[in-house]
Amino acid sequence: MLLRFPRRKIAPFALALAGSVGVQEPARSQTLAETSVEVRTQLFFRISDAAAQRLLPPGWQANPAASGPAQGANLIIVLTDRLVTQDAEGRPIPGGAGQALVVAVPGRNPATGGAGPVVVAGFTSSPEASPGPYGVYVPAAITFERTVTASADGVHRGQERWSLSTGEGERFELRMRHVVATPTRGTLQQRAYSGRNGEFHRIYQIDQGTSLLRAAGTERVEDFAFSAAGPRLGSLFDGSEQLVSVLSLPWYVRRVSLP
């Protein structure tokens, strides 16, 4: 059976990491760096303004979405299962497959006009992917499980479990069960910046499927539990954080270029 998904320009809440939409740069100024195929789950949180600001490089300000399901979220956790990453010639990139947890802050730099997700931390199951292009990834032990089952009434449910730990004491656990919905297919272009060097960015061209699982007025999540601890993650999740929305991206195909 051929499944057809509606295709449209993705709304701001559905961005791969959140941030500005529709950034256009002349193709001649870009150099293809890599392509990747991934499956993602994204968690949008509201943490204290001071905590979000401390994560950003000099000159940058937190820039949470002003509207939409991710309104007010100033921290994004991206849980990604990287199926393949290839260089510009189509060769597999060492460390380009495996799991990762990415921490990003939607930000803007008033002086330069730059805006988009700022990648401030990352944990990867592939040591070769550390420190990564943004200079912030560290190796971690990551296990995960993702399943989809159908009940007698024909409802499909997805389950995910993620567990992360590092030698420095970082810990992250997630358990989630949700009703599977038909994803919306969309495309977007976006810049992503480094939390270590705010002048460095890459340009993403993305084709993805998006399913909103939780937000104001939408609730497909039936069971959800997470915990975080450690020098970095524990300082962000101190019990005062608020989960704003949850997105499922059953496919995420990305071309990454350098300006």
What's the quick description here?
It contains two helices and 15 strands.
Structure write-up:
The protein has helices spanning 49-54, 233-236; strands at 7-9, 31-46, 61-62, 75-87, 98-108, 115-124, 137-139, 141-150, 156-165, 171-179, 184-194, 201-215, 218-219, 221-229, 242-258. The protein has a domain at 31-143 and 188-207 and 230-244 and 254-258. It is built from two helices and 15 strands.
For this entry, give a set of tags.
15 strands; mainly beta; about 260 residues; about 5% helix; four-stranded antiparallel beta sheet; globular; 2 helices; seven-stranded mixed β-barrel
Secondary structure layout:
Layout: E1 7-9, E2 31-46, H1 49-54, E3 61-62, E4 75-87, E5 98-108, E6 115-124, E7 137-139, E8 141-150, E9 156-165, E10 171-179, E11 184-194, E12 201-215, E13 218-219, E14 221-229, H2 233-236, E15 242-258
Parallel strand pairs: 1-11, 6-7, 6-11
Antiparallel strand pairs: 2-4, 2-15, 3-5, 4-5, 5-6, 8-9, 9-10, 10-14, 11-12, 12-13, 12-15
Q: What helical percentage do the residues reach?
A: under 10%
N-to-C SSE string, H for helix and E for strand = EEHEEEEEEEEEEEEHE
Q: How far apart, in Å, are the first and last alpha carbons?
A: 41 Å
Overall radius of gyration: 17 Å
How large is the share of residues in beta strands? Answer: over 45%
Number of helices: 2
Low-confidence segments, given as residue ranges, are 1-24
Biggest beta sheet summary: 7 strands, mixed, barrel
Identify the strand order in the major beta sheet: 2-4-5-6-11-12-15
Shape: globular
Query: What is the total tally of β strands?
Result: 15
In round numbers, the mean pLDDT is 91
